[in-house]
Design a protein that fits this description.
Length: about 200
């Protein structure tokens, strides 16, 4: 029996019809109800030797709510597990997984900040990445980015300028393009057409 098949049997024996399983390229993905989230993570750690916690994040599934996914790995048995559950959109919340995997603390903070998902019992569920006063959760699909107000650059535009409207340096034309005179416009048209300018009155 292959490793994914053995894992499927183990999950089904423990959770019965409450679990869904899907083989992936890297291992096995299992889905459990939200009220059995911590039980599933503890089962992965204790019974399936997945002692290495890799990451945890959220996925906005719009009308279906939010999925919360954790990736764990067994160093002894060399198998990967994606453990996932779903929480409703109107009140997304799960118990914190920090009692099972201490490494989940940072990831839960990030997920709470980016998706607005609560993690009950987290020891320090405070903002992690966004600046103070930031409103909203930017990884939600209904989050709207406010247009930035265009402001003039306060510094100098060119080296040596004071920043108070001094003119920029004189632009130097490419070789072969006269600075002025009747042939300047012809040379510019040749450059616009992708042909190199030529010097002299036959340009």
């Amino acid at each position: 029996m292959s490793a994914p098949a053995e894992l499927i049997v183990a999950w089904t024996d423990r959770f019965g019809d409450a679990v869904t399983t899907e083989e992936t390229a890297g291992g096995l993905s299992v889905g459990v109800p939200a009220d059995r989230w911590l039980e599933a993570l503890a089962f992965a750690r204790d019974d399936l030797a997945c002692g290495f916690f890799d990451w945890l994040t959220g996925v906005d599934e719009l009308g279906e709510g939010f999925a919360v996914v954790a990736h764990v790995y067994s160093l002894e048995r060399r198998h990967h597990l994606l453990v996932r559950t779903r929480v409703p959109r109107d009140a997304p919340s799960l118990p914190t997984a920090t009692g099972v995997y201490r490494g989940a603390a940072w990831h839960e903070r990030e997920t709470a900040e980016m998706f607005g998902i609560g993690f009950e019992g987290h020891p320090n569920l405070v903002p992690l990445l966004l600046p103070d006063g930031f409103e909203g959760h930017p990884l939600r699909k209904d989050f709207v980015l406010a247009a930035r107000v265009a402001k003039p650059w306060p510094g100098a535009k060119e080296p040596g300028e004071s920043g108070h409207g001094a003119p920029s340096r004189r632009r130097v034309r490419p070789p072969g393009v006269p600075d002025e005179g009747p042939w300047a416009q012809v040379a510019e048209r040749r450059r616009a057409a992708g042909r190199p300018p030529r010097e002299g009155p036959d340009a």
